[in-house]
Records
---
Amino acid sequence: MVDNNKFIVSHAPFWHDGSRISTRNYNMALAALPAILLGIIYYGMSAVGVVSLSISSAIIWEFIFCRITKHSVTVGDGNAAIIGMIFGMLLPATAPWWLVIIGTFVAIIIGKQIYGGIGAYPFNPVVVAMAILMISWKDIFDFNEALINYDLDFAMVYPLAAMKHFGVSAVDSFSMGDLLMGKQSGGIGSTFGLGLIAGGSYLIIRGIIRWEIALSFLVGVFITALIFNMTDPASYAGPAVHLFAGYTLIGAFFLATEDSSSPVNFIPMLIYGAGTGFLTVLIRNIGVYVDGVIFAILIMNLVNPLLDKIRPKAIGKVA
Amino acid sequence: MIKRSFIGLLKPRLEYGSLADTPSLKQIPTPKEITLLSNCPFDKKNLLFKKKETVKTGQKLLLYKESDEYFVSSVTGQVSSISSYTGDFGRSYTAITIVVADDEEIDDEFKDISKDSSLETIKNFLAFAPGNPPVKLFSDKDKPINTIVVCCNNSDLLIATNQYIVKSDIDAIKNGISILKAATNVKDIIMVASQNQMHELSAIGEKVKQVNDTYPSALPHLIMKNILGMVVPAGKNPEDIGVCFISAEAVASIGNAFNSGQLPVTKTFTLVNKDGSKTLVSARIGTPASDIFTALNITLNENDRIIFGGPMTGSSVYSEDHPVQPDTDAILVQDKGDIPVISDYPCTNCGDCIRVCPANIQVGMLVRLLEGGHYEEAADQYDLYSCIECGLCSYVCVSGMPIFQYIRSAKYELGRANTAEATNG
């Protein structure tokens, strides 16, 4: 029999569950959308501008880097887009264009690509970029000052800054409902608590982010804030403000859960999440910075490889 | 192909199918030519028979001088070629092609010997029987066997071969078990089966244990751990700690051989078509796959895939003429549109493989070491030898990495290095 057909010969398994990096990233973008939409409703076209510039410049940096290093262009996997998107969500609507472009440069080139690209970076690129920018251009990230020209139907106050500078009584006016509905000053996509929780829950259900990290982060914030609050209610705010103000929710669902820089085993995930929550409140309450999420995640990213050494015993292992 | 569910939080649920009724068996007519693969390297000088030698159905032929390797011809005809064949991971075989004659003659050497169902007879005549009875394990003096596990369902997905044998030939299994018991002196026989087989198997009167209906519960290492409560040490096989696995079909082959006085030469297997429909097929051992496709009206196109074995652990072949072997439990045909893409993307540390691994291996770290070729480190620190080879890590990999292949080739390379060290001192 003449055998003309050529067959595909490859190795087992011959099935795949169909999951892909691009699907994950596009789902993440979908989950981030509600929070961004509310930011756009509040801050108008300038918010659209910042987020769009952030996404597009991140993609362009990725493209340029792939071209220069003669790698295959990895823009299509959506990773650069999602880095740009989350970075844009953290910025105030008034962020100047050059800041956005520098930020995505730091995130994509310094945070991601020089370590070897997707999967190889030790720190969450968005967090690296934010940390560098927050230290370099402090004033732009002073949300009270940055958003001073906006007159919306709620008090244009950044709760964490108010708390730091004027004490607990300054945040008394914030009800939990207001905080959840984004009636506070802050980053474009980081104030709409309800939207972030909905997006995060979607990602958890789809199995795209690890619930252990998000949940233990929030629990860590809650417990640490509660302890501070109980020891001295006059100087330290209660857990509700810490949970729903600043970058806590976006940090819990979109930053701390980033695949490459977080642990994968059960106990390490809990330690990592709780540690990040603990450090966040610590920095907020007794550190010099207004918000601690960015630095807390950065520190815990550093410990991640060490944490992941705590692992279950493989079957049949003798030693 | 079973895709990831919308709720990705849950582990993938890959269920072994079950046979509700006894399906009809499709008999493939004896082909014009068959090829038998014997599990030993080709060695032209020491061959004991030549081309043109005529063989009868069920005739046992020793292959080489000073070796007890043999094969059993499944047809009557003339040997047309003897050559070397290289399979996966460089395993070498001797391929014997036989042109089938018009009239079939049954060899009668076994008929007289079959009155004595001793271990020696089983070892000398049934190694090539359908289902591949592990005859060498029974007589290995260094590793005494004290438990025999009869697998009544197949370990990989989609395959219904052993289930069919249980439904259609339970008497042969019963007979085979009593012969094995007497010959090996092993008292402890455990049958493992899925829930819906429990009733049928209770008639045999041996211990029956139920295996979970999700993959990979029916893999030997997991049966050992979950059903027998014995953990196989990393890098060892069940027989190293006294447990021998044998398929229901192999037991039935033994039963039938001694009952009829003829060596069984037809292999039953599951054929899974492109649309996932299953047919149970019976063909002479050595029948080329192309004859089976013709008989079942299956057309193959360029860039399709033919898989011998199941979707998770089988191996794909490059030729339509690849023959059915005693251990071929399934042939899968995959349309080119259904073939998943393997990519060169790196691991993104999503952790899906680690959560799905039944052996608790840190697959993410392991695969990083394997990609860099650090095999020894992978074995020492990241449990390479604990892998029970289920293939789930590759199945769930978001990056589409060939993780399972990395693991298997690492084991192979390490094995080669160790052999070289041992021979060179």
---
Amino acid sequence: MSGTATTSRFALALRGSLLARLSLGTLAFLYLAAILAGWIAPYGYDDESRAHSWAPPSQLRWIQGRPCVHPVSFSFDESARRVYVEDTSRAIPVRLFVNGRLFGLDSLEAISPQDGSSARLYLLGADARGRDLLSRLLYGGRISLSIGVVGVSISTFIALVVGGLAGFFGGWVDRSLMRVCEIFMLIPSFYLLMLLRATLPLDWDSRVVYLSIVLILSLIGWAGLARVIRGLVQSLRSADYIVAARALGVHPLVVLRRHALPQTFGFLAIQATLSIPGYIIAESGLSLLGLGIQDPQTSWGNLLQESMSIAEIHLHPWSLIPGLALFLAVLSYNLAGDALRDALDPRGGR
Amino acid sequence: MTEPLLAVRDLSIRFGDTEVVDRLSLTIRRGETLGLVGESGCGKSVSSLSLLGLLHGARVTGSIRLDGQELTNLSPQGWRRVRGGKIAMVFQDPMTALNPLLTVGRHLEEVLETHKGLRGREARKFAADWLEKVGIPDPVRRLEAYPHELSGGMRQRVLIAMALAGEPDLLVADEPTTALDVTIQAQILDLLANLRRELSMSMLFVTHDLGVVERVADRLAVLYAGRLVEEGPVGEVLVRPRHPYTEGLLASVPGFRARTGRLRSIPGQVPSPSEWPSGCRFHPRCDRAGDICRTTRPDLPPDGRPACHFPLEAGS
């Protein structure tokens, strides 16, 4: 099947399925938002304001034809929890292209002339330290959405090399590589990660933690894929064009790379799309347990840490929003993977 | 007479306990085309693949000498130099022998890179030249074509170009025309014959089609159940077969033995390699067989007589 035929079949499958289009659209939207987080987010991910601890989502008011927010101040209720009240005497317009960002409150306009306190825009509410959830969500998307892509790329690469060599050469190469695969498949990944986190220093930089999570997840995750690739390559080994290439004296490794492995790419595209959510969930799970990305760095998993108890969810329901983002991303990947399979595999009926 | 280009001596091929080819001896002289004929399952394809060292999991014994060089004990690197460079192969089914994901140009460049050390623009130019030599119109544009955009005949031409691009001494053509339409068959046969002459190569032409072999081969070797039963110049073997099997084969093809009027068929079918009979392997299907045929293997004498205890007399 040629490249153009595949593309057009994929386009056809897309046109046929509303779900496929929706899911791809959602993914594109999420990735774009994460990539542009530095510009779209109204605040930095660690920009805190202790005066706005757990401030609820700001109410947008239309005053003089433009969206505005009122500054909020708080008093304490009988159980010593903050109750926020809007100060309707002042309205601060939400402006586009301020402070070098897409939108937000002008930092000068936001300052109150009476007490010098600063109003803040919280479209999705604030967390315990008064950081904007929307901004943290956008920055967190960078980690949560990239971890799957990077992880799958690494594990797919390892799987291609190991599975390709095992399937193509057979014999003792095959037997020994497959035993290695089986050893890796035996490792209970989640417990290994907990063990590693317990033994490794806690003060590691977040980027190092991120990289090690990706590496560990993909070093564990390649074995299953390698076995499938081995099977595919094994069945290709006796294909006429593989024998023909060998009969022309082409080096076996070149035959493997140029003639055999590309035949598995259609399958790999589906497999990758379907396994990215696993990485996203794994990272979230680790961060949720405090094993992954650490505050003040943000990922969707560690944002959800704040909604771990039912009391928190009851008092600040907006802290569940990262879960919604996670849900959307994972669901979209699964639907997109299904659509890809329909497009690339003519045998699988719907 | 000078040393032949290819000398195969006592070549036996076994898969596990099953002997598929039994002590096959062949020679091909320079500039000569040897036709290797036989029914399906008689060991033709396996023999030709063994010339390239491409049999997986088979035990090959005996000697294959190409140009004085022994091939059976070659290193993997040595084999790679032989494959495509000294012996090249044209495969049976052009529909599956080209990688569907690569362009025609890429296929040819691969050979030129491997055996001529050509890269980039130079390789491209040579690739186009070869396409032209095998009679593909508009070769420069065809370099960009994918296999599925070409007809069966075109693809077979591409495969021939690939086989020739390494300028081999010996071309092994394994039923190169069976998957093609009859009209295209004739074109491909003429092309092969012409190119063979132009490039002064030798050719081993493997087929089950006696009509085809008459057209291209100089000499003919008839294989039955993994053994060579008769060998000789094409004209002689086809006109005066001396082995009952060859005779039966010819009698079953329209046009060769016109005087019989009626087509005959050889009773029974080729037994599978695991249950090959003792003695002469053709004896259960042979109407001339005697007791000795059941017990003793007939030798193939070097003087042109067949491997048969009761050969047909010349002209019978």
